[in-house]
Amino acid sequence: MQTDTICLGLLTTGPKSGYEIKQQLSGPLNQLFNLSYGSIYPTLGKLLVEKYVTCKQHSQEKKPDKKVYTITKKGISYFKHNLLEDANSYIRSGNYGDQVKSEFLMLILFSKFIPKEMTELMINERLLFTKQVYQLINYEGPLSNEGDTKLRATPSGIFIRGLMSEIINAGTKYLEKNRNKLGK
Questions:
Q1: What pLDDT does 147 receive?
Q2: Residue 9 and residue 88 share a domain
Q3: Beta-ladder partners of 16
Q4: What is the average pLDDT score of the chain?
Q5: Does one domain contain both 111 and 83?
Q6: Residue range 81-109: mean pLDDT, rounded
Q7: 136 and 71, same structural domain?
Q8: Same-domain pairing of 77 and 122
Q9: CA 182, CA 184: separation in Å to the nearest integer?
Q10: Distance between CA atoms of 16 and 57, rounded to whole angstroms?
Q11: How far apart are CA 134 and CA 127, in angstroms?
Q12: Is position 98 within any domain?
């Protein structure tokens, strides 16, 4: 998925700064997709030039001005067009699996060369991490960002949170049940 499509999609829930877009992607959405500031800010600049977003600067004490971006009607049309294009590309590709890049899985693959204590520590840390992510995804309390609240309350947000929760829960259970199968 294109960076401009993701940024515009997140702006459909309300005006945001580049920092707020990054923060939104640092929560549970980080499990789906991650963007760096180095890709967010140039993308917002490009979208501004092309009039897909507007920008208001808010002065801050002892800090640079905060730039808050709002999607325009032209931006919404462009977002919908790109989203449809991305969906068509996904379907035409025939590649319906998600690519999982995991340092943890690569280390486990070669764990026979790692001391047992280190492997156990890695698994324990992974279990702790997955349980924290599970709690974050299932958290129903107030959020500091209104856009996060709006997005998670949509039918697609509820669906994605449920699916992510099930995947993480299944992985956690598998790790707990099968950790002794590494032959150590």
A1: 56
A2: yes
A3: 69
A4: 88
A5: no
A6: 85
A7: no
A8: no
A9: 6
A10: 11
A11: 10
A12: no
The total number of structural domains in the chain stands at 2
pLDDT at 156: 86
CA torsion angle 178 160 13 145 (round to 10): -30
Q: What is the pLDDT of residue 150?
A: 74
Whose structure tokens read 């995991």? Answer: 102
Answer for the pair 69, 54: CB distance below 8 angstroms, yes or no: yes
pTM across the whole model: 0.72
**CA–CA separation, 1 vs 149, rounded Å?**
23
- Reading the block at residue 148, the tokens are 């996060």
Tell me how far apart the alpha carbons of residues 32 and 11 are, in angstroms, rounded to a whole number: 17
Question: Could you tell me the residue range of the domain that residue 178 belongs to?
Answer: 103-182
Chain centroid to CA 28: how far?
Answer: 6
CA angle at 126 for the pair 108 and 101, rounded to the nearest 5°? 60
Structure tokens at 152: 């998670």
Could you report the per-residue pLDDT of 105-121, keeping only the tens digit for each?
Answer: 889 988 988 999 999 99
